[in-house]
Amino acid sequence: MARDTLYKDMVLHGKNYDYRIEEVLGQGTFGITYLILSYGR
Question: Most exposed: 5, 9, 37, 40, by fewest CB within 10 Å?
Fold first, then answer.
């Protein structure tokens, strides 16, 4: 995995929702694709 990869179970806090990284689906030349769950605060 790249150094800038977000990790499983990492939580990102947004204005109205929080987002939890469930899985890294893949990565390529242009970026990384994640499966995430969002939930309200």
Answer: 40
Q: How far apart are CA 20 and CA 7, in angstroms?
A: 9
- CA gap 10, 2 in Å, rounded: 16
The answer to whether 10 and 20 have CB atoms below 8 angstroms apart is yes
Q: Which tokens in the block code for residue 25?
A: 């689906």
Sorted by sequence, the CB contacts under 8 Å of residue 2 that are 6+ apart come out as 27, 32
5-34 confidence digits (pLDDT tens):
789 999 999 999 999 999 999 989 989 999
